[in-house]
């Protein structure tokens, strides 16, 4: 990158038109001077013109040589670019399964914009996309078995409107929470969705109420004012009496801790409860877990899938490119259309589902070929199991124990 | 840990696959700019020198001095015109250099980030996504959305709004059955097109010919053909011959090869041909970069679980301890359906996996933590996916190799 920067530096310093513009001006000066002298002395016309021929010619030569420098500069920069990207060709798009589904891409983009809080861009985009629906392109080699989906799943303006409202609500709650330290909208939301949250095993509602209690107890928005501190503590007590009752079943221990802490009131900072009352990350943590729960209840992941996928794609491309080159050299093709032929090294944060690779066949398990656990607790793929057992008693490939195929149990990873 | 280090290491050099057009485009425009300057200078050079010579000769032959001054004025005006044009092109050149510089620096930033897990990489990658989105929107012709997104994200210097706006305008003019704009574009870019196959201009002229024939203007059609088509007979002999034959067939002909020439869909083909020529000329990939990134990314992330008829035990929406898999999320699920899933050679499961009586596998810690959170005592566990409660004694250890 440094060489490229240098080469470009050189180009913009030397390879520009400023000098040739100057030389054009010089030619103009020559012509003007000649004209003036002819006007002054009409008899000198032919002599002046004869004398003018060579200088004008030379000044054009000067302009051309200026241009040659620019040309050279552009050429050098071109070479530097070629060198930089020689081993990085743009991936060919022989296998482009996406161009036949522009409506799905548009939907993904609309949702991405909404979840990122780009409401005005999103609404411009929806108008653009509805007025000019994309033209699906059938690229060769791309099956299109879901033709009917295109129609059903296009940008459904009604649905995106409700989605927009949802996300607008989410950003409103987050804004209040983070910037105004106002937990009430978040608590109200959690209370509305209390059943859904509870089935997910989320304690968001309690955590929010707890932080509200702590916030009141430590003086609310004026923690340094002694009077508001006292008032806040009374408020906190009132809040606890009113709200904590219905948490008693699940969160009795936490509630006891909070009430225990009150005994240390004057110097909480030195008490064992310090962590509860002086946790600076509490707000950010809660904001994150609120976002996660909110998106999950909509069936969406907390981070934009479009962002994760595009980033994973950029990470995967070098490997895929290498594969392409090798396949071209060896003139082979993928044998498995449903699975990539190489492993892509993604960072651990990009692993979401559990993966089971059968230790016998080295294949990933699927719906058709699920993982099976033998009574000893070892697992192989169903096809491997069938091959090992041939229907009768067989030995586990990992330990001495023997079992029958029907004793094995299907697993869901 | 070692594996983790290798998978999070950021190799900037190989990471720039998607970013070539970012630098190529302003450079191609700088070159185009220069070619225009060259053309102007060449013409004035020739004309002014020969005018100067003939004026000198005329003056020697005793031409009136006022006429001599007039022709000198003429030359001066032409040179001033040249200077004005060059100054405009010079300021464009400056802007292009500035843009290239900004872009090189943007790419340079990537070299200073050591790890894919770095927050800075996250930022950089988000900028990249926005760049790819703007590129995609522009290619769809959603100019307003592209402009709004670029403005909102402050990446105007990293995207090429005007280039695509112009391209789109000409594309639409072809779909509206007008050849004028595109022919003007061809004329402007002729100096750069030589190295490329110049099929576009021929096809445009052919279309004009077809339209003349369609309107029954046979004489004009013949003249047009002589002026613009016959010169291409060397390269496009077959097409030229067929065009000649068209004179004998009326627009309602049923003869396949002539019916094809009269077809309305030729305009769409022309529009596509123009876009392809345009992109090739400016080193732009034929397909949106977003498609390239997404095809690769969707496959790299996809697992057999993502489109399984059984809910996955991990990364699903029903449990609070894991985040939803992006492929399973509504945005991308249908899009990823046609793509191959990632290849893995090793199993990847949660720590200390255990199995419930229904066959669902979870990490022991996650299962217990989750059960405690829903208020169960230690003797019971709840399946986070199906919400069925089992006695803790029925948990079995499973060995995943």
From TrEMBL, chain A:
InterPro entries in UniProt: CRA_dom, CTLH/CRA, CTLH_C, Fyv10_fam, Rmd5_dRing, ZF_RING_GID, Znf-RING_euk, Znf_RING/FYVE/PHD
Highest taxon listed in the record's lineage: Eukaryota
GO molecular function per UniProt: ubiquitin protein ligase activity; zinc ion binding
Keyword Transport listed: no
Residues in RING-Gid-type domain copies: 358-399
Domain CTLH span(s) in chain numbering: 166-224
Keywords recorded for this protein, A-Z: Cytoplasm, Metal-binding, Zinc, Zinc-finger
Subcellular location: Cytoplasm
Entry's Gene Ontology BP terms: proteasome-mediated ubiquitin-dependent protein catabolic process
RING-Gid-type zinc-finger residues: 358-399
Any single Pfam family the record assigns to this protein: zf-RING_UBOX
GO CC, one annotated term: cytoplasm
Family label: Belongs to the RMD5/GID2 family.
Name used for this protein in its record: GID complex catalytic subunit 2
Species of origin: Letharia columbiana
Lineage: Eukaryota, Fungi, Dikarya, Ascomycota, Pezizomycotina
TrEMBL record, chain B:
Zinc finger (RING-Gid-type) boundaries: 325-386
Main location: cytoplasm
InterPro entries: CRA_dom (IPR013144), CTLH/CRA (IPR024964), CTLH_C (IPR006595), Fyv10_fam (IPR045098), LisH (IPR006594), ZF_RING_GID (IPR044063)
Domain RING-Gid-type: 325-386
All residue ranges annotated as the CTLH domain in the record: 163-220
Recorded coiled-coil stretches: 72-102
Keywords, ordered alphabetically: Coiled coil, Cytoplasm, Metal-binding, Zinc, Zinc-finger
Function according to Swiss-Prot or TrEMBL: Involved in the proteasome-dependent degradation of fructose-1,6-bisphosphatase.
Protein name, entry field: Protein FYV10
Species in which this protein is naturally found: Letharia columbiana
